[in-house]
Amino acid sequence: MDNRPDTRLLPNFEKLFIEDRIGHGRHLFTLLRLFRGMYGGLFVSLLFFILKHSPIWLIPIITGDMINVVSNPDNININRIWIDLAIISVVIAQNVPTQLLHTSYLSRSSRQVEAGLRGTLVRKLQHLSISYHSELRSGKLQSKVLRDVEAIETLAKQMMYVFIPALLNVIVAFSVTAVNNPLVALFFVLIIPVGALMIFGFRKNIQRKNREFRKQIEEISGQITETVEMIPLTRAHGLDKVEIEKTDSTLMDLRGKGYRLDVAEALFGSSGWVMFTLFQMGALAFCCWLAAQGKMTVGDIVMYQGFFGTLLGSVNQLINVYPQFAKGFESMQSVSEILQSTDVEEYQGTIPVMHVQGGFSFERMHFKYRDTDQHVLSDFNLDIRPGECVAFVGESGAGKSTVLNMLIGYYKPTRGRLLVDGVPMDQIDLKSYRKHLAVVPQNTVLFHGSIRDNITYGLTDVSEEKLLEVIRMTQLQEVVASLPDGLDTKIGEHGGKLSGGQRQRIAIARALIRDPSVVLLDEATSALDNISEYQVQQAMRLLVKGRTTFIVAHRLSTIRDADRIVVMNKGRIVESGTFAELMELQGAFYKLQQMQMEYAGIS
Ligand SMILES: Nc1ncnc2c1ncn2[C@@H]1O[C@H](COP(=O)(O)OP(=O)(O)OP(=O)(O)O)[C@@H](O)[C@H]1O
Fold first, then answer.
1. Which residues form the ABC transporter domain (predicted)?
2. Which residues are paired to 384 by β-bridges?
């Protein structure tokens, strides 16, 4: 048996979800199509299932036969018992290898679908627009990639492990009975409408309670994540008790909903058990009655009871698996919400960008974010020469970061356009263009990994020399030397083990090592001490040299060096010029500076 995982490329299911337009009862169809190309394996798995499951069907027959042999004292054929025993022993023993083969074939397909679905979702997330991501909470996405895909995989497995076996059980038990005794088979048939009636009667209630419980679970998982993230803040403000009480009340709600679900399921389960056991007893009485009339042997009674037991067990399984099916279908709906979304990146140009000189032109650009009425940029005109360093200043909310977003191509202007080296942004292939950019965001994004990984993020061939040079340029060598594993020291998630200034310098090193043509710098607002500030400034100076640079500036020192300062107010350019020119003008920039100086004086 080959137990190696399937190494074929992961399937991409995006097209399938778009074509199938999930919903309106198409879940089962889509589930089936997810396994396209694997039907052969599934069929083999089913064959092995029939083999491994065969003892369940054979045991009642053999048991009946053995009893029939001994219940006829005049003609006991002891050899037949030995043959029966030998047959059933072989049939039982083959369960181990066939079970393994059945699981191996099935699991290979279902795990492939599971991995493929997760891969498809992650790929789609990379293509969805920034607006889409800013509207959706990351916790929800995470839950779709992990929890919902798991529920779909469970659904597929339940289908193969529970639904199909139970259905086969019903078919086999019924067929064998029908061939032997149509009257008893008729009795078996009665069980189907009773089972259907049971599901129909309880379905809505159980479904509703299940959903309420699941929603509450989602609520509490969201809340717990938030609570854990906020622990330092909560502790600092002495709000532990408030947080605990908040969680307690949600937990109490969950307890109530869980209790009501348990009771409803218990009522459902026990009603089913009572009804079906009464049926079984009725069937037993019926068989005894037939036997009393000489129409049935004792062994047959035992055999039918065995089949009836299997049949009832299967019907019960089919009924009980229902809530899980509902959950799986709901998860398919949830995943399809992402996969069917057409909200991908707005720019879809195709001209590849081999080289960026760094000349930019904003031509009468207007822009507003989705779902907002007000324009964030209005009639924005600006020409930037290659290699120029432009600093944007203005009050909070003036639209400075938005200008950087437009340069990255996150959003398309509502009116006007942006040219890169004379080519309209909507014509160029953004992926190739962005390779020439380096972005240093306001909040440095560090991931859980080594300092080396964080600096060389996304680059494959970085020489040790170049890395060390960048570390020297950003004055990180002392920091690296003081860490236990040097460059390979793992930094905590979000860089928790580093200071603010160190984090910023890592972000600058990450930009420097890419040797970009264009640098976009959203300066961090958080204050640093003098030494850190100096180190960050030095690193920034090196980064900016010889490249077109856009800086959203908060610090006086950065602005002084800029070739041009653009003062923004409510999305418009109100002044622009060098530091000296603007100071001389004594306009908006001058006022901003005065305010900053006063503030610095006070503090
Ligand atoms: N994703 C978004 N969706 C809707 N509105 C947004 C979004 N991002 C920013 N805005 C709004 O756009 C305006 C400009 O924001 P922007 O971040 O560009 O300002 P800023 O000048 O960089 O401010 P700050 O100095 O505080 O960072 C603000 O009113 C802000 O509320």
1. 360-595
2. 360
User: Within 10 Å of residue 268's Cβ, how many Cβ atoms?
Assistant: 21
* Nearest CA-CA partner of 15 in 329, 339, 331: 339
Calculate the CA 257 to chain-centre distance.
26
Nearest of 385, 432, 378 to residue 403 by alpha carbon: 378
pLDDT tens profile 461-514: 888 888 998 888 888 888 888 888 888 888 865 556 788 888 888 888 999 898
What are the structure tokens assigned to 159, written together?
A: 């289908």
Q: How far apart are CA 70 and CA 381, in angstroms?
A: 102
Hey, whose CA ends up nearest to atom 31 of ligand 1? 397
Secondary structure (3-state) at 356: coil
Q: Is the CB of 132 under 6 A from ligand 1?
A: no
Between these two residues, 137 and 485, which has the higher pLDDT value?
A: 485
pLDDT value, residue 243: 86
* Domains located in the chain, CATH noted: 14-339 (1.20.1560.10), 360-602 (3.40.50.300)
397 CA distance to ligand 1 middle (Å): 5
Which residue lies with its CA nearest to atom 9 of ligand 1? 402
Q: What is the pLDDT of residue 3?
A: 47
Complex-level ipTM? 0.95
What is the pLDDT confidence band of residue 7, given thresholds at 50, 70 and 90? Answer: very low
Specify the ligand 1 atom closest to the Cα of 405. 18
pLDDT tens, position by position, 17-62: 887 776 556 778 888 888 988 999 999 998 999 999 899 889 988 9
Question: Which long-range contacts does 294-298 make (Cβ < 8 Å, 24+ apart)?
Answer: 296/181, 297/64, 297/68, 297/71, 298/67, 298/68, 298/71
**Residues in a beta bridge with 393:** 567
DSSP 505-553: HHHHHHHHHT--SEEEEE---S---HHHHHHHHHHHHHHHTTSEEEEE-
Confidence at residue 135, expressed as pLDDT on a 0 to 100 scale: 67
- Report helix angle 164-180 to 298-320, nearest 10: 150
Report residue 5's pLDDT band, with 50, 70 and 90 as the boundaries.
very low
* E-strand stretches of 300-346: none
HSE-CB for 248 with a 13 A CA cutoff: 6
399 CB near ligand 1 (under 6 Å): yes
pLDDT in tens, 99-116: 999 999 999 888 889 999
Kind and range of the H or E element at 376? none
